[in-house]
Specification:
single chain; alpha+beta; Beta-lactamase; 3-stranded antiparallel sheet; 6 helices
């Protein structure tokens, strides 16, 4: 956050990801997750990574029909470009190589994701992406006094990640109904992403 120089730059970016800026404090602590966001906010934001940099607004209801089968409501898809595809490719590579994702090797599709754990082990998160599905898992309690005693069980990797893993297994076990099939991320071969975690360097080389 110090190198970026200004939290406002991050707040402006997340607004392109469908998150209301008013929910994100104008403070360097946002790089540690200090914003109080919903599963809807986070799942919508992660559509950017699954869709080559394009944000897709989540919808609860896509269509409503009356008793005669006549459609009386049809939702309109809201999409917009939020992130340069070559930067998005770098993010997807990092999400694919996140430490928790290594536990998902039994899932048929290519997958990326990120865990999250809040103060005092109250909330556990896992945000997962595949090329055709974005899933957000939150575990916790509306009563903030309820929490785990330590990080052994009170972390996203143990609270939320197993739910995602079982959910994805069921999705791919029933492709005839889900219509969601295992795929690899379609990252352009003209973009070469090199990650050097030891030196905290990400280089993106683009061929023309």
């Amino acid at each position: 956050m110090t190198e970026i120089g200004n939290p406002e730059l991050v707040r402006s970016l997340v607004s392109e990801f469908g998150i209301d800026k008013s929910k994100v404090p104008n403070s360097p602590s946002i790089c540690l997750g200090s914003a109080d966001l919903s599963v809807m906010d986070m799942t919508g934001a992660y559509t950017v990574y699954a869709n080559d940099g394009t944000y897709t607004k989540p919808m609860f209801v896509t269509s409503i029909e009356d008793k005669n089968g006549r459609q009386i409501y049809a939702a309109t898809s809201v999409q917009r470009k939020a992130l340069n595809p070559k930067y998005n490719h770098a993010m997807v590579e990092m999400l694919k190589n996140a430490s928790a994702v290594s536990a998902l090797g039994h899932i048929k599709s290519e997958v990326g994701g990120k865990t999250g754990t809040t103060n005092d082990y109250r909330d556990g998160w896992f945000m997962g992406i595949t090329p055709n599905l974005v899933t957000g898992v939150w575990t916790g309690c509306d009563d903030r006094s309820v929490h785990f005693r330590d990080i052994v069980y009170g972390q996203g990797a143990n609270m939320a990640l197993p739910i995602f893993a079982e959910y994805m297994q069921r999705v791919y076990a029933d492709t005839s109904n889900s219509k969601i099939y295992p795929l690899d991320f379609d990252i352009s071969r003209s973009v070469d992403v090199k990650l050097d975690c030891d030196d905290a360097v990400i280089s993106i080389e683009e061929e023309f």
